[in-house]
Amino acid sequence: MMSIRPIQQIRIQSKFLTLPNLFTGGIQGNKEGCQIKVRSYSNSAGTTKTAHITETGINVDGRDLLHVETRNMCRCEKCFGKFAHQIQNLPPVGNAFPGIKVEEIGKLSEHYVSLKWSDGHEGLIARTIRGDFGPGKIESRVRDWVDLARRKNSDQEFWRTPNEEVKKFWDYSWVVSSVDNTREFLVHYMKYGIALMNGVPDDLELGNIIFEGLKMGPLWECCYNAVEYLVFKPNPTNLAYGSGALPLHLDLPYYNPTPHVLFFHFVKSTVEGGDSYWADSFAAITKMTEERPDLVEILKTVPMTYRYTPPGSGVFQLTHHPLIRTVEGDLWRTVESRWSMDTAQFARDRDLETRKKWWEAYLYYRNLIEDPSCWFMKKLEGGEIVMTDNWRVYHARKEFEMTAEGQERIVSTAYMDWNSMANRLLSPEKGDFVFLEVDQH
Q1: How far apart are CA 260 and CA 415, in angstroms?
Q2: What's the pLDDT at 56?
Q3: Which helix (H) or strand (E) holds 308?
Q4: Fewer beta carbons within 10 Å, N or C terminal of the chain?
């Protein structure tokens, strides 16, 4: 029997190489045998890469791509807008290019490979991150941080007990002194779900800190002001304005989706008590998954109803969420607040057996969250800011008292969408035109 070397071992320098199909059976739909076209490229380090057509598409540098994927990945300036970086010139029908196949593989360069498709189009696809996004710092940012920005658990650090990194305070002046410093701070936040700053000047309001200091925005709009001040009120329409203890919770569960990034600016406090504390729900869920995966599944599939309907306010917020949401196996979002639960609606919506299982799972979970050994506790002072991941890290407050005239506790809060922060982390500076290098292919 004739010995055949794997295609990946063939190294050539000619424009195209066509080999007869030497494999029994051939490729489905081609009884005459298939044409396998291989191209190779050797970079400055002497590393040789190849591209060849496969049964379902092409293989580039060991990565398999479907025919339909390659056509939708074309980065030529006809298909991919130079200034918009969006797919353009799409036909009104069939614009996902069904049935189109790669017919020829042309030139390979360091960042691109030329292709010709069965619809006659000749273009190129990117082989590298630089080819896909452009040169400069954006290449390293995408390579190092894109999974963190997409909330991949492998790039996050869960903390069952808070370590020194979780407790770390960043100097505000240092954080805002350069774009790279701001990005380092945001990376810390995305990893741990919490980041603290001190040394905030007294004359800066939270809006100024976010827009002018961190250069992020816009803020997330809800039934409160974009920047809301929490000052003690008797008979408050929201418990956060009172002086009582607030158990561990995640904000605004009666919104769908819930706000993501929570800013908590401690402006001033001369009251007794009122210590803050935090807990990592992802760490608790991970432990629960190890101990009782059956209960975790219940919290992922059975939603609880949450409501906020204070009399006389004109506000009626009501929706429902499962406590745990995952994406491709990664923990993505936790939604939960004890005092916003609409248990009566939950009882109307679910049968008795489902509710029994849910309450068993929920109480097991709350027992993990409410373990004081897993809390990070701190009495915040004026000029300090805490950013928490409102899809992950719970926050709470101890009761406080005003025992003398003139005592007060002033806190300002704001919310932001995660994507606004990810944009600050990954994007080039405004006005910095990063074009693809297709003309150098």
Answers
A1: 7
A2: 96
A3: strand 303-308
A4: N
Contacts of 431 (CB under 8 A, 6+ apart): none
Q: Which two tokens stand for residue 86?
A: 């969006």
Average pLDDT, the chain: 87
Two tokens at 264?
């908590």
Spatial separation of the C-alpha atoms in residues 280 and 153, rounded to whole Å: 13
Rg over CA atoms, the chain: 28
Q: Are 210 and 354 in contact (CB under 8 A)?
A: no
Q: What is d(CA 137, CA 139) in angstroms, rounded to the nearest whole number?
A: 5
CB 393 within 8 A of CB 270: no
CB 331 within 8 A of CB 282: yes
With helix as H, strand as E and coil as C, how does 15-67 read?
Answer: CCCEECCCCCCCCCCCCCCCCEEEEEEECCCCCEEEEEECCCEEEECCEEEEH
Contacts of 372 (CB under 8 A, 6+ apart): none
CA distance 126 to 135: 13
State yes or no: pLDDT of 84 exceeds 70. Answer: yes
CB atoms within 10 A of CB 345: 15
Place of tokens 């069939």: 94
When pLDDT is cut at 50, 70 and 90, the band that residue 40 belongs to is low
Work out the number of other CB atoms within 10 angstroms of the CB of residue 98. Answer: 9
Tens of pLDDT, residue by residue over 168-223, are: 999 999 999 999 999 999 999 999 999 999 999 999 999 999 999 999 999 998 88
Contacts of 341 (CB under 8 A, 6+ apart): 304, 305, 306
pLDDT at 269: 78
Task: Report how far apart, in Å, the C-alpha atoms of 240 and of each of 257, 304, 363, 397 are.
Answer: 21, 22, 24, 9
Task: Answer yes or no: are the C-beta atoms of 160 and 282 closer than 8 Å.
Answer: no
**pTM (whole model) above 0.90:** no
Q: How far apart are CA 110 and CA 92, in angstroms?
A: 34
CB within 8 Å of 311: residues ≥ 6 apart: 237
Half-sphere exposure of 357 (CA within 13 A, CB side): 16
CA dist 295 and 282 (Å) reads 15
CA 90 to chain centre: 29
pLDDT tens sequence across 245-290:
789 999 999 999 999 999 999 988 777 777 899 999 999 999 999 9
- Report the alpha-carbon angle 214-411-425, nearest 5: 20
Nearest to 378 by CA among 277, 248, 244: 277
